[in-house]
Amino acid sequence: MNDSTGALHDSQINRTAVYISLGLAVALVLGVLVGARYFFQQVALQPVAMTELPSPEADSPECAALVDSLPEKVLGHKRAELAAPAPEGAAAWQSSSTRRITLRCGVEMPLQYTEYTPVSSHNGAEWIRIDDATPGSSMVTWFSADRWPVVAVTTDEEGLGRADTPVDEINVSALPQRDLPRNPAPLSELQPAMHSTDGSGANACGGLLAALPESLAEGYKRLPENNVASPQTAVWTQLGHEPIVLRCGVNDPEHYGAGATLQQINGIPWFEDTITATGTTSSTWYALGREVNVAAFVPSGEGNEVITTLTELIEKHVPERKS
Length: 323
Description:
26% helix
């Protein structure tokens, strides 16, 4: 065998080895992909565990009928079996252990449902959206606002994918229609204070309210005055979030007394009332030491920016209290 023949033979052997290696690599990749697909399919078929939550109407005939009528897919997720013991009035859809949507029928409306809560229409029903205020959480729940029993649908950004809401694909219009009572709006139950005899308190509230901006924090827009029932009050709302509410000319805080902790911001001492903050992550703040007290209901995530802005406006438009 001459040198050229040997070289050709070696080249053919090397090429064959490369082809075999490539074939094995492709087969390995295909095996991994098929295995991963099988794994995620198996995960998606695993029963979903849902704990018992306060759902007073979950065992109602209306909820049973709704659960039976629910679609097999929502946002591409398949209807999942519930792990025993499965709660009444519940359903779930999932594509993996982290991509999931759950539904509960017969729940109570959240305390955040007030006259200031934005309502939107989806698939023939009215819904409100409540975002989880826990830092780092993307959990969102939609509550049906005009149907009884109340339905809650929960997911997060993993479950949503690119969609805006799952309730476009969930039809609850067969449930009886009902106007559900709203909870008292933030600060609406505060008692107004008597203005000073020279009328400066009333003038101060008018000047402050007129100076308030249309947007007080990112995403928040001010409601028109005719949509605000409480006197001397301004409201800013954002979909999914609790409102920011300011009310001017209120009594001294109920839980304020000697030894109470105050936070001094520029020229304004603020008192944070944490006792009345039940069922909410927001705080009620009182600007003290001025001609009139100013109360502010502020979601925890917006506190620093909002309180700083309000401090500047109160300093400018509300005179100090005369001793």
